[in-house]
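Researcher: For the record, we're logging two predictions in this thread. I'll number them. Prediction 1 follows.
Model: Prediction 1, sequence and structure:
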Amino acid sequence: MLKNYFKIAWRNLLKNKTFSLINILGLALGMACSLLIMLWVQDEIKMDRFHENDARLFNVMENQHYSGTINTYASTPGILAENIVKDIPDIEKASQLLWETAPVFRVGDTFDNEKGRFVQGDFLNMFSFKLTEGDAATALKRPDGVVISKKLAEKYFKGTDPMGKTMRIDNKDDVIVTGVLDEIPSTSSMKFDFLMSFNRWKTYNTWAKEWGNNGPSCVVLLTKNASPEKVSAKIKDYIKTKNKDSNVELFLTNYGESYLYSKWDSGKQNGGRIEYVRMFIIVAIFILVIACINFMNLATARSVKRAKEVGLRKAVGAYRSSLVGQFMGESLLISFLALILAMAIVFLLIPSFNTLTEKQLSLDFTNPYLLFALLGLTAITGIIAGSYPALFMSSLNPVIVLKGALKFKPSAAYFRQGLVVFQFGLSILLILSMIVVYRQIQYIQTKNLGFNRENLLYLTDIEKSMEKKFPTFKQALENQSGIKAVSVSQANPLNYVSNTRGVSWPGKDTTQQLLFNVNPSGYDFVKTMGIKLLDGRDFSPAYGTDSTNYLVNEAAAKKMGYKDPVGKELTLWGKKGKIIGLMKDFHIGSLHVAIEPLIVNLQAKSPNFGAAIIRTETGQTKQAIASVEEVFKRINPGFPFKYQFADEEFGKQYKSENVVSRLSGYFAFLAIFISCLGLFGLAAFTAEQRTKEIGVRKVLGASVTNLVRMLSADFVKLVAISALIAFPIAWYFLKSWLEKYAYRIEMEWWYFVIAGFSALLIALFTVSFQAIKAALMNPVKSLKSE
């Protein structure tokens, strides 16, 4: 019996090659899309989950309270880990983790900036980063030890054993190689090429020893039977026991969850990359469902051709269940063939997909979970796609069918039309998403930030290379052609991370705790950045008192209650001075958040950590970079010359949104393409059902244009209904997505017009092929057809 079913299924595929190809292609595209998304989602979910102690690894987070608002940070005091592990018995190990840093490594004549982290001694015992050489328990215990990657070992020691060898850091200190790292898994969000002792870093950064300062993050390993909720309750007021003026409450979040759940609002978790994971899962389901609907419509369109086969089988005693099994078997066969084609498509697309998403995805057929997923995808697709055709075909009355009087109930037509409405509704939803996401990204990338990011470059970590040489560096550059202005800043132009409560002014409400961003900067900061001064002046060497004077932005003046802040008193960290300039608000971080209050104080020499900011003359960037490199290498021999362009770095902040924008475009195109295949099937079915009607109309004088309009009108109505359903749903979800940005586009009416009109044109183009074909048919043949 099964062999017979297989033969019939295969013969039907070969007999109707065009429809079979469309069926398989539609399903294959939907399955390929779902496979790619499944691989991406799986990789996202696995991120940071490879650590053996995953269930016991936790980030220590801070909720900082400021007069009714709560700000959540992963930054903690630099001495938290070493103290909390002693004071809280449920914490077995703890380590401070410094942000990624890039000191200069030198061995002989080879030197370069290398990216890595400063961590504490138990780090390698807490995390599952393996060593190929050295002992994880002791490698980071000595303050002058360094653990390096295999890449650095080969780069600096060229095939020789690096263990015990000396490396010079920042041209002033020597460290000893105590371990070599194995390859870091691709599913680790934390990447590094070296690890060094955090205690070593802390000796050069004494501010990290104070309970009132925050910076490094802290990760703890709980004891095996410890409850995270109970430990969170125990450490809630821990900082307050060390600093009575603290407004900080501590709590724990699982380290493995932090990658996906990274956003916080008012002290509560509020999304993160998990939003993209959910969105792509929904998109995958949508496209797979669209592909299945396409199969249903095409199968139904061919039902007239197989009606007599069903009637004959029923007449000779076939049960409905066996007919259902036959048609479901055919559906599963097509689904299996579609899976093979889908895997071929995935193999072709996965390199480009990896480039776009910056992943290392692959189809690993040795993974039993992947094989199970592929079989599951085939079965689910086959069952969903074949269910309606199987039930419909098996329900046909054999007497009516064999008499040649097959007619379809209105309910069957409504169901098929409903499927098309659903298809195009999803397609219009994806088209609208593509438009809105693209427009928002364009808005972000072209928005006036309040400073000129064109022709602006910066050199980071200059305190290591220049120390007190910056005034000489600045003066030398200002004499070079192509250089318009030079300044120095504690932070790079796109990210001011230093904030403080240590701000006061006459009339301040002392009961309120307010937070201000602070950026120590040098002369010509406003000029170099291209910031607009609304009132007052910039720092100038002509004014000796500027060392205690300040610049503020509009948000800071508003927070202080100053309408005309220039000339008003301001005290920062105990230094009383005056506000000498009011800067127009400018963006110093992500457009997801509103512009925050900023105070700029003068630090004429190179700050403790910062960036040299250089503005080049328009059209002379290449010459200016050559000049900067020449001066840099002359003043700082032994340090590599590295720079970033502000506009390029700004674009990198929205890398995820750019990926989503491009993928949404591809998915929208794929959805509308598959939907058109389904519409093609329904148009073919309708034309086949109305063959005699078309013939009669032609005999009575109907023109081809009238017939095409008649056959297309119903489909136009279906697309219109799809749009009416999709528009409010799209408006609700896309408006919610846009609200995550403090600065965003408005939902314009023409977005909906373009989406609906595009779907309508594509649908008309698809239907017109069948409509024109039917309208041109010889009426003699049409009237003989029944």
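Researcher: Logged. Prediction 2.
Model: Prediction 2, sequence and structure:
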Amino acid sequence: MAGRDLRALFSTNDRTVATSEAFTNRQAQWELVAAALAEHLRHVADPDFDVEDLERPRNNVIVFHGVGGIGKTTLSRKLEAALAGADQRPAQWGEPAWSGERILPVRIDLSRSASTSFEDLVLTIRAALAELGQPLPAFDIALRRYWEQQHPGESLEGYLTRGGLAAKFGKAMPQQMQSALSDVAQALLLPGTVGSAVGALTGSLVKALRERRQTVRALAGCARLEALLDAEPDLDALSFYPHLLAWELAQLPADKTTVPVVLLDTFEDVGDRTHRDLERLIQRVVWLMPNAFFVVTGRSRLQWADPGLQGQLDYTGPTAWPGLTSPAGGVPAARATRPATGHGRQVLVGDFSPEDCDDHLARRLTRDSRPLIGADIRQVVTDRSHGLPLYLDLAVMRFLELRRTGHTPVPADFDHDFPALIARTLSDLTPDERHVLRSVALLDSFDLTLATAAAGLQHQAPTMRLIERPFVRENPFGIWPYHLHGLIRSTIRSTDDHTDDRWSPRDWEQAAARALAALGAQWQAHTGRDRLFLVGCLRQGLTLARDFRLDLDWLAEAAWAYISDSVWEPLAPPTDSNTGTPLETAADGLVETLSALSRRQHEHRDRTIARLTAVIDSRRLPAELQDVAVYYRAKADRDLGHTDASRAGMQQVAGGTSRLAPAARRGLAHLARLSGDFPVALAIADTLGWAGRHHRVRGDVWWVQADMQRAAAAYAASRTEAEEHGIAGERATSQAQRALVIAFTDPDRATDEIELAEQLLTGLDLRTTSFTVKIAALVRDAGGPSVQVEHRGHLLRTEINTSGIVAAAALLELALAFHHAVRHEPDEGRAVIDRLRDHVRRGDYSYSYYYDIAHYMADLTLTEASTARWIDGEEQARTGWRALVRARQEHLHTST
């Protein structure tokens, strides 16, 4: 299946290098052709099939379309070879269901470089049918009449020889045509040589057909032959002659029955949406030969099923071409190549899979049957290619070019874009379409409105045409349904192409500004709280503003909307502060801030603090957004136990007028609570209101007093307020805390509360809250088999230590202290108390009251007086925690 790669062969003097046109598996496409052809064979074998029925819908065509360089021409050639004989078919393609039928493949290249005229197309089909070994008189007489009228003095035989058809299909066609003319002349008793009397022969034949003479009864069965011979023999008439070919094929005896499979390649060069003259002629051929099967390969889908083309083409609409409009059903998947996708008989040729890319590169250039291109280079090329075969071919030529200059190719040489990709992509686009294409290359995804606005156009027509191109992919479930093929997009963005209408840096900046404004207009016009849409706008907008140094504009308000929900989806690739990358614009600062906030759920808090400090020190953000970085750095400091640093940050924000001032006052309440000053924390809670999450702050104070009932009620109120305000993150956090306190008092009921918390966390990225839910599950199971609880605690401790969230680590130890107190395991309990003491000694984060509570639960005496200011006194706190332990012991005793 592999021929010589002549371009590669003539690119090197190294005669030890073997070059081949490596064909990578396209099994999915073959299976589609095989299934469609099998269906076609059953259709034409049906007794009700009538080749002269011109009103019945047609399903005798399949279309493979895709971006330039995806491998459509190679596929067309391999299909031709596979249809020609089993010895030419790859073993993995398998035996078709119609094996045994006589199939005649005829491949016609419609590319501009091939200069194939409509006459050539008709002649090629007829020349291929010469293999049948007998005349086709109805068609041959009409064709000979046309030729002598349109090409006076030019020999058809000579034309076939010059065009290469005689060499490809043999010289039988002229002889068969001569035989057909002689037979008809003899039947009509015409004197003289037939070659000089075609006009007279045709006139006599028409007269004989009208008179229904027995001498021409064989041809009289073709109902429309008379009309075609009587018509002016021009190009328009020629386009109807294939009906005569179809009729002749239907008359063949059973032992000569043949089904032509006509492969029309490079169909995009047939014309455009304005000039459909050649397309109209070719469509007639397909319609008038219902017993032939056509495989079309080109860049675009066929529009024949579009009723809007009525008048431009003869046969249009979904009724005429049902296979070109109905959804595909059950596209078979290839073993390695990504499956073709499409609608019915309109199939989008997919990219190569990574495995197929590597296989292709390994077999293109070899020495002693071993790949010349090393695995490391093949990996780089595969990653950059996005599965596009053209990129692989260009990379192979670059490999040879580097060797020719004396350079040993290395992987870094292939971190490279090819301007040829742009030239191939833009070659058949109108100027407006090229303008839209470059504009949408700035966007991850887009719709008609966004693309048109980004291009600065007043009408959507160019965008509507562009989205039908195969390099524009569609995801109907996306926020914006369209996106560019990955390699096409990256190449257009990063490569300095040499086209006449290439953009300057200023052109790109203006397009980016238009795109950013269009995104903002869509976000501001969007009604309701749509988190996915908000995040989508931010992701695209932040990237544009950062890459092109644009003002924040609507991004500032969108950032506040993002922060308010505390969901923390990833927004954009982070700017790595540790590499010293400068934050030069407000967009740089905002991208880094929001990235640090989302990544803090997956990074150690030390890393979060470093990133936010870099943003704060750069002073690129406007004042209110600067407070965002200060506030969340203070939160990270609190998580790590840096009480003084956290308090300083919270006081700075709380003393201002930004939207985070209430949250910062809540942060001060938390710091008071964590240092054990519960009355102050409770007093601050009374001043916070909803914006400061007053109910949750109260719950945080009451549960450490062992007043679980009051704490649960406060958390429920906090969850309700969050639901009313539509704040998903706060709702999940409040429910997680409620599950924790109920786990201490009612393990049976706690299961439902924990499950609800897990449901509310779905789709959110709240690491601390997730830890709280897991710890709640440990508290619920406290007193159970110690091996299981301790094992789960050990795994959770490792996970928490990786995150650097000290608050969660202390809470975990408190849960384990409760477990050991319930089981009356003093040694294990003292080990937990020792770990809590280590937390107290480490830094300035005050966990002393957790240390105290662990003693209360185990009924141990404190060696030093408690420093906490308990709401109702220390004794009440001791009594409450000890009562919770006894209640759990009684619950376990009753359960057994």
